[in-house]
Amino acid sequence: MLVTSSLRFLFALTVTTAVTTAVALHPTAAQAAPPSDVKPVRVVILVDESGSLKDQDVTRERAAAQLIALSELSEQSQVAVVGFGSSNGPGQSAVDIVCPLTGVQTAQDRESLSRCVEKLRLRTAEEGNDTDHAAALEQALDIMGRPDDQQRAKIVFLLTDGVLDVRNSPQYGADAQARNANAQAQITRSLADAERGQVQIWPLGFGAADKSALDAFAAGGWVQPCGDQQTSTPKARVVATSADVERSLLEAFAYARCAGIEKSVTDSLDAGATVDLNVNIPIIATDGSIVVVKRDKRIQVTYFDPEGTQVPKQGELKESTFQAAGEAGPVESLRIRNPLPGQWRIRLESPPGVSRQEVSATVVWQGALRASISLSNPRPRPGEQVNVRLRLQTRTGTITDPAALEGLRFSARMSGEGFQEVPVELGDTGEGADRARSDGEYSGQIVIPATATGALSFVGKVSGPGVAGDERPYATRIAGPADRLRAQVELGSATVEPGGTLAGTVRVTNEAEPVQLGLRLVDVPGTVGLSAQQVQAPTGSSEQGFELRVSADAGEGTVSGVLQVLDPAGQVVAEEFVDVDVRPPTPLWQRALQALLILLAILAVALPFLLARRRARRRAADPSELTLHLFDRPGEPYISRLQAPLGEGPEFMFEVSDGRLVRTYGTGYAVRRGQGRTVLVRDPSGRELDPLLPGQPIALPNGMYLGVDDGRARGGGAEQPAYGSAEPYRSRTHRPMPGDDLL
Question: pTM of the entire structure?
Answer without folding.
Answer: 0.57
